[in-house]
Amino acid sequence: MHGFQRLHMVNEIQGTDGAGKAARRLRKRGGRFGCFAAVLMLTGILAGCGSAEKLTADPGAENGGALAETGTAAEAEQGNETEPAVVTFSDRISRTGDLILVSADHEYDFEANADLELVNIKETQTYDYPVDKDEFMLARKAMSSLDAMIRDCDEAMGSSLTSVSSAWRSKEYQQSVWDEYEELYGEEYVTKYVAVPGCSEHHTGLALDLGITYEDGSAGTFSESENAVWMAQNAYRYGFVRRYAEDKTAITGISNEAWHFRYVGQPHATYMTQHNECLEEYLEDLRGHTSPSEPLETEAAGHAYKVFYTSEETIEEPDGEWTVSGDNAGGFIVTVLAD
Question: What is the pLDDT of residues 44-83, one digit of tens each?
């Protein structure tokens, strides 16, 4: 299995190399990466400079994958080339991707993510698990990983009780949740356990709440189940992390939620779990790795990755297969497949 999954969103990436390099980037890469060779539709670049067209490919890779693919490095230049190829990221990219931070201090940008591809969970699932509402949706890129994670959890538990109790939410829906819980439990409770509308990870389509549903349709308590323990220990294998742990409340601003999981991609989920970092800590860690020559290094599913942060919109194009995600704070995280 290859570490990168294919692209499902529009990313405006500009290049400054000429038509020759653009043509080379359109070639399929051979060898063992040929199974997912990206196609860069660089219409503007063929004229010398311009925005990339929409990059599309098949649904997410099995068991988590990584970030959405955004490009491949140009092949080695033959001849008189002296300047390296560069890529330019649009400001929109800084507010999109698997690693964006959405919190009380980092509001979700609905406009920048207008092309978010959501799928109906019940209609798309490849493993039959309970979903509380027929209309629940999730980002397509995370669906195969969710299916595999719940399937493996049920197999480990010897039951079929793991369910989805919440998934993607619009801002309006989040407001209704806020109002309902405030009325039922009061202001103190709602500020501890419910995100402010516009600042919920559920807006990303990459977050969901898990539950326990018995055969008679009644609900159990996920946080007190063995399923919750298994998920906390194994979710990273599928690209998910338990987002709001009890020992991270002072950092995240959200109280302990054993049921809330966020898709970030397998390399990042693996590193975060191994080093007991929440997303805020991981992004801060990455900001200490601003050079491709001194990256944060991690391994996942038998593949090695190099990850670095940049606030620069134009960088030298990385060698090999690479991906980019914004952090929702003006920066970009570039992940390079190192093997």
Answer: 333 333 333 232 223 334 443 443 444 444 333 444 567 8
Look at residue 38 and tell me whether its pLDDT is greater than 60.
no
Cite the active site residues: 257
Structural domains for the chain: 13-95+282-337 (no CATH), 121-263 (3.30.1380.10)
Q: Which sign, positive or negative, has the C-alpha torsion 46, 52, 57, 60?
A: positive
What pLDDT, on a 0 to 100 scale, did the predictor assign at position 53?
A: 29
Q: Are 126 and 144 in contact (CB under 8 A)?
A: yes
Q: Are 309 and 289 within 8 A, CB to CB?
A: yes
Give per-residue pLDDT as tens, 122-164. Answer: 999 999 999 999 999 999 999 999 999 999 999 999 999 999 9
pTM: 0.79
